[in-house]
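Input chain follows. Return structure tokens only.
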Amino acid sequence: MNAIRLLSILACAASVAGAQIPQTEYQARRATVTASLPGDGVLVVLGAPEPVENYLNFWQSQNFRYLTGFLEPNAALVIVRRGGESRSLLFVPPKDPAQEVWTGERLGVEGARQQLGLEGRDAGTLRAVLDSLLRDGGALYAVGDFSRGGGADVPGEARPRTIHDQFLDGIKARHRTVKVTDVNELVLRLRGKKSAGELTLIRGAAAVSAAAHREAMRAIAPGMNEFEIQAVAEYTFRRNGGDGPSYGSIVGSGPNSTVLHYNRDDRFMNDGEVVTMDMAAYYGGYSADITRTVPVNGTFSTAQRDVYGIVLAAQMAAERQIRPGVKFTVLNDSALTVIKNGLAKLGLIESPDASYDCGAASRDGRCPQWRLFYMHGLGHPVGLDVHDVDAYTKDGLAEGSVFTIEPGVYVRANTVEIIPDTPANATLRARMAPVVKKYANIGVRIEDDYVVTATGHDRITSAVPRDIDAVEKEMALPAGPSPRDAARVEAYRTIKP
């Protein structure tokens, strides 16, 4: 490892040290949510249940984690608001040494009180306590994993009923005068503004994820299987203190590079193909999201350069617009203009604003030709979830906003077949066929993570090469594994709950 790289890693690790979210911040979050309730009442925040089998992985409900920092199953937070005063209770399973042989040590009621500063209660008493608090009616505000949008009082199922739905149904059956209101949106709005501690953890996730992408680039070679590259990345996540993948790792080569959420990762990669890698880690509970597309043999062909150049130019056009107050639509428009013009220049579409006969797929029967090659949005927020919430979803970009920019162009070999075989489309299909054949199975996506600053932005995933020459240079370096990043692993002590 050269001295510059070592100094960079140590600096990143030092920035993460001490980044655990303090209990005072959790207290402030709870106070803000409580103060935002429509009126007095009882707020219940339901954590995730224990997996059916205790050898399965457990992941805490994100809104519950955001308000408590408590990462054990079958917990609930209850806040009673009366006349401007509030009282918080954390319901957790009691310690059970016999069960802990299987699950590991649990905090228990007293441990939760000591570690989190909340009044602990036995989770087995939750139902009885709520029954007592709601005995005379009133309002119950609920945060949980519910199947319906709009809360428990809105009919209509969007997906199968959850255990949290069933819990609230029991309360409603026993207390028919109680009004139950879903207030998940209050928590999501609060989560949209990232604190300094959260930003530090997101930067940590970006650094770990970037290291994994560099290792993957060096490892790729014709004849390897996609799952080998997946293994290199996910190994690097864990070896550097990451919690693990923050979503299903995507390693798609050849035709798989044109599949947006391909995650089978089981194809052998061939010389002359590209491979798209969309992979990132959780770190301290916070996510990054990085995508790179590289040539399997380490050198971009002319056709691959053509497509790659459009996508990179689109991303850079969007990022030039980043500053506080700018609407995300401005970024999208900038990237889309580049993509449309680029596709037209390659002959993949007839002109930047050309359309085709798509029948019932559109209200007026016409669809833009560029949509055949770029069919997703420009980006999304990142945070506790890889697709998180952020203040910019309603207003312009705000200082501290964190989001991705991920334009793409995907030339599927069957693109012409997707266009309806109608008289109106005959000329287009004939003209497009040879161009699609030239660029077939080249799918390119480039994705980076950004933090809005007072004067512009910080591309926090810039440690991963994205320029063509830089990518080829990285891929020419010897394959890893890289030395263990001892400083970053040691920093994990400060973020481990």
